[in-house]
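Researcher: Let's run the pair from yesterday's discussion. Sequence first, then tokens, for each.
Model: Starting with the first of the pair.
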Amino acid sequence: MASRRLALNLAQGLRGRAGRSAAGLTRGFATPVSAPVKTQTTTLKNGLTVATQYSPYAQTSTVGMWIDAGSRAETAETNGTAHFLEHLAFKGTANRTQQQLELEIENMGAHLNAYTSRENTVYFAKSLNEDVPQCVDILSDILQNSKLEESAIERERDVILRESEEVEKQVEEVVFDHLHATAYQQQPLGRTILGPRENIRDITRTELSNYIKQNYTADRMVLVGAGGVPHEKLVEMADKYFTKLPAKSPETGAYILSKRKPDFIGSDVRVRDDTMPTANIAIAVEGVSWNDEDYFTALVTQAIVGNYDKALGNAPHQGSKLSGFVHNNDLATSFMSFSTSYSDTGLWGIYLVTDKLTRVDDLVHFTLREWSRLSNSVTEAEVERAKAQLKASILLSLDGTTAVAEDIGRQIVTTGRRASPGEIERIIDSVTEKDVMDFANRKLWDQDIAISAVGSIEGLFDYGRIRADMSRNF
């Protein structure tokens, strides 16, 4: 904004001087004109939502389908099906063989990808603007006409089993899977995305086909475009390619259960392995949903707790009080605060990694002491720092058409509308230290916690002792 004001002042000054020397010369420096970028939405007759953010000067576009169905839409017996389907999406359709599909994408120079989360499945493509219709055609073919051949299922079964083995070697992934499993015991949100190995070995074509019929329906899908694709054009393509989608999901037992708010259970799970050089611990309270009025307050509070990495050169100066205390007392290798949201609940907490195995209890104690402090003693300065960091991270995360499409798809699937970056910035700016303390009093002070710990965790005290630290008076 400062540079814009400077440009305007320069232009006005030069116009004034030019007017005195040559009356006909009135043009000054060009100044930026910023028109608000809008997200447009249209709902087709069958219930499919089309949402776009059109940038007339963009030469590329990302188009994709965001589906309100992930591992949470599965049963215990079919857990892993959504992720399995994602693997099979590119293995041939009724209209294209796998080779034809790969060649078509390759010849366009486009990128086609997919991913599965606990609540969403996403298929998207990035290409030049002129190739968008072909990409939408391919996406519609994949989503509606996948062959699900037995030979492809068997090949992908081995691929997914190997992927499962790789995930089990990633300690952070294991800790967070265990955290969900203990916080949401015996509930759909507590299951992993890949599913247990026995399910991966047993998933059948019938189960895969049923998952598509039950979840790939227009009322749970959003076709998103970001970049150089005009809204009207994408609506036309949606009308052409997606009118045959079933309008509504059948209300199966799995669907009803997936829409029921899960119970957060204060509990812990520990996997002790003394051969590991570190203790890896995640602690969380029940957080907020995407729709919660505390959503951005939770993010600001998370940013106040902050992150820390001993390996970074700026480790002593990473901003938060906790990072300074941890560094000065050499308590941890790293920590990462998080606020993970779902459609009706969330997890707010911290992930700690330390190789100081005799000081694990100190690390946990002083972390929860910092959480307690948030209930009664938050300064304006630390709130402003957290807000600045949060705004910067949100804006930087929207760099590129794929990131914008991701933001549009996720927001519309989970909340029904997309808040613009400007609106989000204003909401964050309005958060005060009083809001943070009020949030901490309601969500942190004396609340049950879920704990997941993996590695050399002998020094981690029992659940009751840790839980008692959630209501510490200084």
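Model: Moving on to the second of the pair.
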Amino acid sequence: MVKICCIGAGYVGGPTMAVIALKCPSIEVAVVDISAPRIAAWNSDQLPIYEPGIDEIVKQCRGKNLFFSTAVEKHVSEADIIFVSVNTPTKTQGLGAGKAADLTYWESAARMIADVSKSNKIVVEKSTVPVKTAEAIEKILTHNSKGIKYQILSNPEFLAEGTAIEDLFSPDRVLIGGRETPDGQKATQALKEVYAHWVPEDRIIITNLWSAELSKLAANAFLAQRISSVNAMSALCEATGANISEVAHAVGKDTRIGPKFLNASVGFGGSCFQKDILNLVYICECNGLTEVANYWKQVIKVNDYQKNRFVNRVVSSMFNTVSGKKIAILGFAFKKDTGDTRETPAIDVCKGLLGDKAQLSIYDLQVTEDQIRRELSMKKFDWDHPIHLQLMSPAAVKEVSVVWDAYEATNGAHGICILTEWDEFKTLDYKKIFDNMQKPAFLFDGRNVVDVEKLREIGFIVYSIGKPLDAWLKDMPAMA
């Protein structure tokens, strides 16, 4: 029986291994992590991540050919194929701080694999890593090999949160990068055979190691670039009276461009986009490609500009101050159908409003109060380090209350900010909400989910990203 072990039981490792176990009943899959609470959650009825469809798969396979364990060394030593899905956070200090990926967790995983292995292994990079990481891992393993042979493969994930299970069941492509040697090709074939249980052969792409590593960074950079492009246009639409939804629809009809990722919003979030672009920028700079680095930096700059622009719109519309005013925040996750808050635009918007002394009442369908408070008290990039290394400073968020109902969040509020496109926010009783708010009642739609005209008829002053401005807002400056 082929044995697979995945180091790291997070958003990538958990769902990916669950689907492999489901689709390959003849393979034994172990997911290991040093975090006992996380493993306990995977073994319970309350899984540590929210992702549509994952509960059923885990319950079907757990205890049969899918195991979650803290016995890291035991499962690593027994495995034929080891997936490494550990964090690669952005460095916060030292060489490349603020841009380069910190490979501390990766290196310690590689050293541990070398320590405990008694048989030949295929080691698969599953986390997003900078180009040439495989080479570094290879060096660590071969210099500590004790006669054991290792083959390193790059198999980046292309999952979108909220549709991860769908993406795993029916991927656009599975990318496997390996060495172009006989042993490398053999290892590539072994991993290809795992995916071939359910993925059509023409969707499994084989490349060299560096192409696979770079393809992941490039894919995320291209997607983020589309969002920044449409968001840059949204600012111009507001200035000219154009409507970004109409512009995006017209642009997306061009088959060379296509309609996906053309929704204007308060900005992109998630664990990958910003981190991967910063990583790309750093690699470009290290290779002397300053102009290329500057090009990709601009994608992040426009994203930051969009979040600042939103906050300034809120403050300037409400008589240039939100001090002491209750602002309802609807949605904290970085997108709908996930409980993930990593790099969510809501963090910067909330911090911007708190900076002007607003009183925030936050409601999200999937995000816990602890998570919201932790995000608002953390420094940038700290989110990607283990929780026990994250400092809490609760004093920083005393102006925040977290509630479990949209109507409670908006009751008595001066303004509402919609920051996640949860479907629920399209169907709320906005007349009831309006009646219970301070007047004038403001609604700032950061996701373009509401019917602007209907809300204006009710009496709201509405700001919707990239849409023609409410008469009230026309004389207000877009940027303070």
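Researcher: Give me one sentence on the second I can quote.
Model: The chain is about 40% helix and 15% strand.
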